[in-house]
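Saturday, quiet lab. Running sequence design on the structure tokens for the scaffold JK sent over.
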């Protein structure tokens, strides 16, 4: 019962922690642009500095979680509470350079805040439920992102300090829930996996198995994140407006509703990962994503909008399944979660940059007069990810 309560607290934290960060993002971006008069490059670097810092610390936090287990939740709590403090410093900085430094610090804190939570969530969840629990966790995170944006929209005319104070309150609530969760689980958390029902394997065998599993999994996440970065970033709004002729408001509304529609399908694919095979679930998700990407590449809104939904289903369904596989690696679940998170961050940064460059250079080229070439090219990483899953990834472990 105590473990179930801890799982619930972790899942709710995915919502409150995401609300805290996402409602501060547009506030700080507009502060950088309108008050500090930062360039678009400077504003773009806010995201880059955050992901670089989070990517580095994610691996460190994952490795420490493997050794310290639930003790790392103290670091996670500290990450959330210090985030609440850092957010309050933004209005006091005099230029974009200090803003970049604070966002880098937030990246470090987020690495230590989230990785232990994601790893311990997998550790304390039964193996036949991990995929669905991770799916619910990330669904709550998606709803948190939506809520954060809606909160900012409602408070956009309020003083910056008021908006950031609410953000800090959500960070504090998140840290409080994590320390409560820590009190409900033992310090030496065990994890149920396929090795526990066999004789203890040798260290050499465990390391070889880990390397053979994590490398293809890391490449799958890297490749799929390159494609998904187009759907999760600013570019998709411009794409729907420029190439499909949707108004700015309707494009935003379309993306918002698409994000809600995909949630139950994500859960169904995670159910397949739990009950059937994680490899099969990934193959289904990637196939849906590729079909969606092809439809999204057309200039016909009647095809492209359903394509957007399918592409988002494919891209987002990969996240919980790969986390389930990563955390199931014996003795290295925390490290694997950190590596997977870092791979996703690198893929997102690279994908956004490559997509922007492709649209700048090739945006006026249409295959057959109807298919947008840059979007077609961005499907290639998803095809590579599908090939890796089919050829290199094992079934379940």
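Result came back. Writing it out in full:
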């Amino acid at each position: 019962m105590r473990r179930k309560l801890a799982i619930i607290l972790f899942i709710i934290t995915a919502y409150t922690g995401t609300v805290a960060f996402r409602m501060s993002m547009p506030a700080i971006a507009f502060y950088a642009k309108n008050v500090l008069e930062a360039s678009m490059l400077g504003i773009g670097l806010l995201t880059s500095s955050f992901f670089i810092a989070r990517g580095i610390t994610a691996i460190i936090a994952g490795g420490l979680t493997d050794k310290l287990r639930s003790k790392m939740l103290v670091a996670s709590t500290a990450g959330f509470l210090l985030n609440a403090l850092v957010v309050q410093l933004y209005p006091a900085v005099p230029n974009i350079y200090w803003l970049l430094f604070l966002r880098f610090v937030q990246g470090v804190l987020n690495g230590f805040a989230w990785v232990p939570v994601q790893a311990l969530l997998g550790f304390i969840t039964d193996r036949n439920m991990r995929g669905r629990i991770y799916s619910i966790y990330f669904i709550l995170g998606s709803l948190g992102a939506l809520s954060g944006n809606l909160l900012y929209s409602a408070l956009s005319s309020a003083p910056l300090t008021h908006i950031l104070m609410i953000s800090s309150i959500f960070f504090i609530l998140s840290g409080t829930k994590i320390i409560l969760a820590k009190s409900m689980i033992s310090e030496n958390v065990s994890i149920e996996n396929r090795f526990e029902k066999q004789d203890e394997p040798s260290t050499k065998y465990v390391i070889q198995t880990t390397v053979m599993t994590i490398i293809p999994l890391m490449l799958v996440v890297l490749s799929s994140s390159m494609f998904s970065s187009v759907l999760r970033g600013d570019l998709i709004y411009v794409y729907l407006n420029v190439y499909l002729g949707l108004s700015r408001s309707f494009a935003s509304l379309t993306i918002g509703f698409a994000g809600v529609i995909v949630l139950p399908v994500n859960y169904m694919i995670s159910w397949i990962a739990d009950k059937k095979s994680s490899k099969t679930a990934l193959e289904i998700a990637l196939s849906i994503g590729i079909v969606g990407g092809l439809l999204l590449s057309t200039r016909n809104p009647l095809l492209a909008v359903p394509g957007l939904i399918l592409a988002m289903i494919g891209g987002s369904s990969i996240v919980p399944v790969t986390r389930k596989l990563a955390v199931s690696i014996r003795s290295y679940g925390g490290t694997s979660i950190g590596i997977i998170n870092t791979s996703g961050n690198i893929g997102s940064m690279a994908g956004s940059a490559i997509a922007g460059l492709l649209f700048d250079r090739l945006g006026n080229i249409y295959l057959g007069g109807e298919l947008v070439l840059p979007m077609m090219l961005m499907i290639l990483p998803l095809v590579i990810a599908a090939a890796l899953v089919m050829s290199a990834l094992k079934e379940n472990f």
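Notes for JK: The beta strands are 366-367, 371-372. The chain has 14 helices and two strands. Ask whether to fix the surface positions before the next round.
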